[in-house]
Design brief:
By secondary structure, the protein is of the alpha+beta class. The chain is built from five helices and eight strands; from the N terminus they run ααβββββααββαβ. Strands 1, 2, 3, 4, 5, 6, 7 and 8 form an eight-stranded antiparallel beta sheet that branches. A hairpin with a 2-residue loop joins β1 and β2. The chain is globular, with a radius of gyration of 16 Å. 42% of the residues are buried.
């Protein structure tokens, strides 16, 4: 049976933000471990958040689906920087996408946040997603950024800084039997780029993208 979207709830009293060491590990480990964690945006002192239910990994210059496949450029420079920073770019000239940089500085790798289950600040998200069912508010990478108000101003944002306006919390890690993997969605490149099982998602979750 598909999981149901949970009603809005208060954040736990003891909030544990994920430290930089969490993101400095191998990208596939981080991608798997991000499922169930909470992405939080602070808006005028108010928490707006979602539970991470789907991600994709992009690793190194040899990965032809990665922006780093062309080498270091002004656009992808954040991918080469310290782990735990946001890499935000625009696709199709209208949608922003949020990625989190992983692995030690100098190696280009990042994880795309593909979908969230809305948790906090539901009324604020609803105003940004009028006429759209709650299930679809944050269901897809462009919708994640639209719903949480994330744009290029967050490119390079340090998610691990004490004064961060966007960060990731421990949340509720997902058991292995609830995790599914598969090829990344609509990527370009060679056969490896198109078939590697570097997409991780919570099995049967209603907020996972198509």
């Amino acid at each position: 049976m598909a999981q149901r979207i949970r009603l809005e709830r208060s954040a736990p009293e003891a909030i544990q933000r994920l430290p930089r060491a969490f993101f400095e590990r191998p990208t596939l480990e981080v991608a798997r471990d991000l499922l169930g964690r909470r992405l939080v945006r602070l808006v005028r002192g108010r928490r707006v958040s979602g539970r991470i239910v789907e991600v994709e990994a992009y690793i190194g210059e040899e990965d032809q689906a990665s922006h780093a496949s062309v080498g270091r450029t002004a656009r992808n420079a954040v991918m080469y920087g310290p782990p735990g920073h946001a890499y935000v770019y625009m696709i199709y000239g209208q949608h922003y996408c949020l990625n989190i940089v992983t692995e030690p500085e100098g190696f280009p790798a990042a994880i795309l946040i593909r979908a969230l289950e809305p948790e906090e600040g539901l009324s604020w998200i609803a105003r940004r997603r009028p006429g759209i069912p709650m299930r679809d508010w944050l269901r897809g990478p462009g919708r994640v950024c639209a719903g949480l108000g994330i744009d290029r101003s967050f490119n390079g944002h340090d998610l691990c800084a004490p004064d961060a306006q966007l960060w990731v919390e421990a949340g509720e890690p997902i058991p292995d039997d609830q995790v599914a993997t598969g090829p990344r969605v609509r990527v370009r490149g060679d056969i490896l780029a198109r078939t590697r099982p570097w997409r991780f998602y919570i099995r049967a979750h209603p907020c996972v993208s198509d």
